Amino acid sequence: MKTRISLTVNGTKVESEVEPRTHLADFLREHLRLTATHLGCEHGVCGACTVLIDGKPARSCLALTVTLDGAEIRTLEGLQGDPLMETLKSAFHEKHGLQCGFCTPGMLVSAWDLLSRCPDVNEREVRVAMSGNLCRCTGYQGIVRSILAAAETQSSEKSA
Amino acid sequence: MKPAPFTYHRPDTVDEAVRLLSDTSISVRPLAGGQSLVPMLNLRLAPVDRIIDITRLADLRRTRDDGASIRYGALTTHAAFEDGEVPDAANGLMAYVAARIAFRAVRTRGTIGGALALADPAADWLTTVVALEGILHLVGSNGRRALAAEEFVIGPYLTALQEGEILEAIEIRKRPASERWGHYKVTTKVGEYAESMAIAILDRNRGTARIVLGAADGAPITFAETAVRVLQMDSPDRLRATIEQELIAAEREFLPAKLSMHTTVILRAIQDAASK
C-alpha cells in the first residue's frame, strides 16, 4: 500500500506516493533521478549516502521516505554553487581527495556539515568527525588533507 | 538489501500508538530514529509486518525541567544532548556520552529512548542511565508506570517493556555540582559499539560513589564494593583486586582478556573522575 507524502528536495516541493519500505536513498536515486547520492553498504555503515535532512546530516539508507513527510532534504546536487561546497570540491580536486569517487558525495556532505559547525578543525578532529565515512580506496590521507585545506581557505576568505 | 514489505502507521496520539502496538497477532515494531531498526529491516534480520512511526508523538519529544530532575522525552536525539539543545542533568556527562555515540549522521536521528528500548548491552545510554540512577517512564494499554533504569534492563536486548508498551520519558535527577564523573570506553574504531565502557561518579563532599560497567554481555553491572573502596582511597592495585572479584561475582563468564580489559576500563573511569 502506497502512502502519499510531500517533502522538499533541494528547494523544490515534491509530492509522491511511496511504498513504506522505500528508503530515502532509493527515492532520491530512482524516483527523482538524483544520482549524486551513492549507496554503498545500505545498512548505515559506509556513509556514502549521507544527505542533509532538515539541515542535519543523515544516512539516507536509514531514513524511510514515508517518515519524511514535510521534511526538507538537501543532496549534493542541492549544494552546487554553495560557497563552502565549492571550496571543498576545489580542495578535493587539488589535494587528491578522491580516487574512484564512490565515497566522495558522502565525504563532501559530511565535510560540509563539519566545516559549517566547526570551522576551526585540526587534523584529529577531522579524522574523528569523518570516521563515519568509509573510503574503500583507503584514500584517507588525501581526504583529510583536502578538508583541512578547505577549512584554511574558508577561514582566510572570512578574514579577508 | 531492501526491506521486505510492511504496513506503515503514523499515530498522532500516544493512545493510538499503544492501541496499534498492542495487536499481537502480527509482528509490530515502533520506529523512532530508526538507526538500529532500519539496518535490521534492510538486512531482513527483523521480521516486521507493521511499523508504527512514533516520531510525531509530541509528548515523547518534550523535555521538561521539573526542578529536582529533568525529564527527557524519549525522542530526544543524541545530537540534541551533544549540542546542548536540552539541559544536562549530570554536569556535562550526558553531552559527553552523546557526542561519542556512533557518527554525527547517526546522532542527528538516533534517540535516547530508542537506544534504551533496544537495550544493546554495548550501547552508551544504557550504562549512562543506570549510572545516573534514571527513572524510565513507560506507557501502555494498562496505563503509565515508572521503573528504575536498573529494573528496566533485564539482559541483552531484553527489557521490562511489555507488548504494546513504549518508553515515554527518561527522568534524571539533577546532580550536585560537587559531583565528579569519569568515563572510559574502548572501541576498535571511532564510532563503533563499545568493547567495554565504564562510568564512575564520585562525590567526596557527600561521601557517595557509583561505578557501572557496560558492554558486559548483559545488563550493566554496578560495582558496590569497589565504590566503597574508592571512597576509602584504596590504592590502584587494591582497587584492581576488588574490581576483579566483583567481575567474577557477576558470573558473566568473561574470558581472561575481557576480564583484564573491563578491570582496566573501570579503573580508568575511576581515575578520570578522581582527577577532576
Please characterize this protein's 3D structure.
Chain A is α+β, with helices and mostly antiparallel strands and 160 residues long. Chain A is 38% helix and 16% strand. Chain A has five helices and five strands, in the order E-E-H-E-E-E-H-H-H-H. Chain A has helices at residues 24-31, 83-94, 104-117, 123-129, 140-159, and strands at 3-9, 12-18, 50-53, 56-59, 72-74. In chain A, helix 2 crosses helix 3 (104-117). The model of chain A has no long low-confidence stretch (mean pLDDT 97). Chain B is an alpha+beta fold and 276 residues long. Chain B contains twelve helices and 14 strands. Chain B is globular, with a radius of gyration of 19 Å. The A-B interface holds A 1, 3, 19-21, 23, 26, 42-44, 47, 50, 53, 56-59, 61-64, 66-67, 69, 110, 113-114, 127-129, 131-133 and B 1-8, 10, 31, 34-35, 38-39, 41-43, 51, 53, 55, 79, 102-106, 108-109, 189-191.
Fold topology:
The complex is a heterodimer of chains A (160) and B (276).
Chain A: E1 3-9, E2 12-18, H1 24-31, E3 50-53, E4 56-59, E5 72-74, H2 83-94, H3 104-117, H4 123-129, H5 140-159
Helix pairs in contact in A: 2-3, 2-5
Chain B: E1 7-9, H1 14-21, E2 28-31, H2 37-42, E3 50-53, H3 58-61, E4 64-65, E5 69-73, H4 78-82, H5 93-98, H6 104-107, H7 112-118, H8 124-131, E6 135-140, E7 143-148, H9 149-152, E8 153-155, E9 158-159, E10 166-173, E11 180-186, E12 196-203, E13 208-214, E14 221-222, H10 224-231, H11 236-249, H12 256-274
Parallel strand pairs in B: 1-3, 2-3
Antiparallel strand pairs in B: 4-5, 5-10, 6-7, 6-10, 8-9, 11-12, 12-13, 13-14
Helix pairs in contact in B: 10-11, 11-12
